[in-house]
Amino acid sequence: MQAQEDVEPTVRIREVKKDRVNFVLGNVDLAFANSLRRVMMADIPTVAIDMVEIETNTTVLPDEFIAHRLGMIPLVSANCDEAIRYTRDCICLAGCSFCSMMLELKVACDDDNTMEVTSAHLEVVPFPEEEGSQDPGEELSKRGEWFGHPVGKNDPNVPPVLITKIRKGQELKIRCIAKKAAKEHAKFSPCSAISFEYDPYNKLRHTTWWYETNVEDEWPLSENAKEEEAPRDDEPFDFNAKPNKFYFEVETDGSLGPQEVVMKVRLRPACCS
Amino acid sequence: MNAPARHESYVLEDGEKSVELTEDTKIPNAATIKIVKQDHTLGNMLRAQLLAMPQILFAGYKVPHPLHPYFIIKIQTDGTITPQEILEQACTKLIATMSNLETKFKREFSYKDVEAGGVTAAAGEDPYGTAGGAGTGAWGRGRDYLDF
Ligand SMILES: [Zn+2]
Fold this sequence. Notes:
By secondary structure, chain A is α+β, with helices and mostly antiparallel strands. Chain A is 14% helix and 27% strand. In chain A, a hairpin with a 3-residue loop joins β1 and β2 (20-26). Chain B is α+β, with helices and mostly antiparallel strands. Chain B has a domain at 10-110: Gyrase A, domain 2, CATH 3.30.1360.10. Chain B is built from 3 helices and 4 strands.
């Protein structure tokens, strides 16, 4: 057995951008690296529209079509660990401002041009408080200015998400409830993509490169190959070798920043999710 | 209408035990442990950690059914330690690796922050509307994410 276990893990961040981070993870087990990937992908909670009440829909799309699209819109979820509760942990009966966000979509077209209904039309509205619910929670004070708003709503350079197109006389009147969750649905994932690579030369033969005439031409090396030594032509196969270096690129949909996604990874016990 | 609550697949119910150990009656120093409300994320990394420990003769896990939110892990040791103890050690080891990694990530991010003159600030003030002291914007000010 290799005594590799006593080596500490290493991290090298190659690039951080507004919506992505690229890093190299070293000295960990393949299973560990994959668990890290799985957690970032599926276990980090965010806020997303989860219930939709449609009052009027005279557009060409059916209600459930629009409800589905609304659910997929990323909402700003920064610091949602503290800024919002899970509905299941809340003392309210059917949603309140501590465990839900309310958004409204009210658009009508009354000119002759086709109009685009986008996430920019979604407005966050204050939750109608039930009487006598003087909840002492401090969640509201932990929210940023744009918490729960569609991503990019505060930035004219970010194109909004198209929901549907409407023509003269058509109307959409919708009330949405957004909740915090993870794992229950892919819409709660903060990541739009995570690329994960190891062993760019396939020295470990974990995969077989299928090819028609020439392997080198049909399987161009990835950028990450520059980080590793090319195998010699006569190099014998080392069947004891283990992967040791993992190349990640975590891209988020904007609901959380890339740094927040990575730093929220921890062992998540099922008792407190 | 009869659908179970969606979070039931990953949140323990009130009083539900997360771990259940059954000693093997036929094989020495072996046990089967059922871990509920967890999946391949924990199962596979635990298995790998166990296999890297010298006292282990066997470690394997499975998720018996994709709709049943638990996995079982089978462990056999060489007798110098019980399966329960070695599982505890493996978990401790994984937690240590995780927190070590967290420290390193924190440090790497702070370097990147300095390089870019504050990533968050450089990327147009407050890319995710996190003004008001919460969220990504606060990273650049050297605050720990636990401080929020
Ligand atoms: Zn509530």
